[in-house]
């Protein structure tokens, strides 16, 4: 394995160009207008997996967007790594805030990425990180360094809640059988501070609709006498958190895992500067639940964010309308022990109960998933830690992330193996935002680190 | 004047078709894409005025959309009526709620309009009502029944706050000199309950922008730690009214005119059924300021309505974004003695003061106008009342409307004459809403009533 560094160095331009080709296809799973692009992307992923050395690859239909499955089985008695990733991306809106079109990748240097970064929707989340695994496999097969079996399950619905992946797994348990699941869909702290994600928050995503009168009204003739659904929705949203930014939904915190004082002290040791954090986001102050630090608020505590709101006249100029309807998309990040389905029901019941008689309210649960925590004493984590030590020259820090990969708990439940979250992006890479990017250094470092994981995992498993 | 009824009857199809031609031009003043349509509409209005008998008509440039001015001066010693109206219309959104395209007029019968109504944006507000005056003039000139001078000032910016009409009036005081100003841009109670509007609410229209982080963020990685501008905006809007639906802006009510007990008792005598009102709007309950009736809330009390709100992801599906910005358009209806500029400043100061440090807030005043009350003992009102008695066979009720024509107080101040608001639309005509319409009966009744006003006003003025 000593020549992985030089293999990456020799092939890096091709590695970049192949990724760029993949990024050009607008695989927006949330928008049904992009169905053809989704299929085209799945085809491209399949072809890349075959070229990287897989024996077999297929596009598996689901009731939604298809899953790409591929494998290279070298010996049934050897361990098997299952790589999970996704080829779909977040919608790129708001388009006017992108400095270059989201599906025309460009390479630019930034302060954090002096070696350049690829700017495109999906560059980091997750096409770029998923593609590191394809290129790591290529290295291992071309150089006869693959020590075990490998399977790939690359889905197309991660950004819309992995709606049909449970169905796919249920129907393909044998095919997907493995000893460890490897995912690169998270981040790491910094170049000189490698980290492995050991916790993810759960999620409950909901859409609400508030209906007032049966049509838009003139705000002069009816204003003051008829409930305005935007005013009402604002009051309802406002009441979901109190003056300490605690969530007011009855029962919401009942099962929240409270960390011990020691765990919180240990968390506080992670390198972090609140001034730098505020400066980077250009905010005068942070804002969150009383009694918790910024790092805690963004990882071990549940939250409630409005992800979108709309109603009435939102065009140029003025319109004196009292609208008939107002809408919001609201999501809650959850922590271990909170059940997303139960929380969704608590939200629904509460939201309906606080609506005044003058409006009708509809609460539509969208999708969700459970929080997840990986124990750090399992073979998978230890192999990953050793791989980072080899490529970074430093022991990685175990880190709880605030993000969610809703499907992760299902993997563990259905496939009975541990999940290792080896993420190589940075928090600043603007995933889900305009100008998403992925550092070239990070991309290549990922390709370099992954083969070491295969080596150590196989060795430890066989010990 | 005895043959006005038969003139209307003989010409009604042409009167309808001429109005329909005008309604086909999408004169949306708020949207700069419709600049050409605005000019085309102004041209059409000018041509119609000349054909109706005006001696002169011109399109007067302003820094914004032009004003159409026309006149017929028969004798400088006779009184002069100035007709004000507007040829611009409200934006038609939301388009998907229209049963027929807003600029393709269709005639349909409704329960309230068994003789049919013209459905189109601007049918009632204000092309249809303005055009009644053009056709009334045609009758008077063709039949030698015009008893006085008449001037027309038809503007193109009423729906965006009449931004440049003050400038136009200031620069054309002599040209616009008159004895009474006649406007049909309001409504009446019912076919068998004619009414003349004697009061209008003032208006302050404002746009607010709340900025959190300098870019859209991933709600998993930052949610709970960074202020979400939608959550904050909701809290700020919610706090603008208390549990009694009183507006909480300090000083807001200081100058509000409180009506006497007698006046309120008299108001309560107007025909009104709360059950019918709720049924028509399909609402379970009305909603407004504690201590006031629905009629009072919608006319003599000030209000605060959010006319539009937007922020974050509002497309199909889900996006877990913590947006950088959130926006709202907020308007307040004001009552006599509240100064709209002072109220706008009070709003701005208060809104900025309640923003937490974690966000930046920008308050952009849009436009506004003062409330207006017409005394019912002046010649103009008495002449109008007598005209209604002649055509409806009933004395009209003086009625305070909740709507605003912001420019009205300026007319009185600059041109020193009284304003008479002879409106023939119904509250149910869906002005500013999808499926706006204007009853054919109402349109023709307006044309029939207006010449009587000219006759009686000239007679009373000369007494």
UniProtKB/TrEMBL annotation, chains A, B:
Pfam families for the chain: M20_dimer (PF07687), Peptidase_M20 (PF01546)
Domain Peptidase M20 dimerisation: 200-357
Highest taxon in the source lineage: Bacteria
GO process annotations (BP): proteolysis
Keywords: Hydrolase, Metal-binding, Protease
Keyword Phosphoprotein included in the entry's annotation: no
Gene Ontology molecular function terms on file: metal ion binding; peptidase activity
InterPro entries: Bact_exopeptidase_dim_dom, Cyt/Met_Dipeptidase, Peptidase_M20, Peptidase_M20_dimer
CDD domains, alphabetized: M20_dipept_like
Protein's name according to its UniProt entry: Acetylornithine deacetylase/Succinyl-diaminopimelate desuccinylase
Taxonomic source organism: Salegentibacter agarivorans
Taxonomic path: Bacteria, Pseudomonadati, Bacteroidota, Flavobacteriia, Flavobacteriales
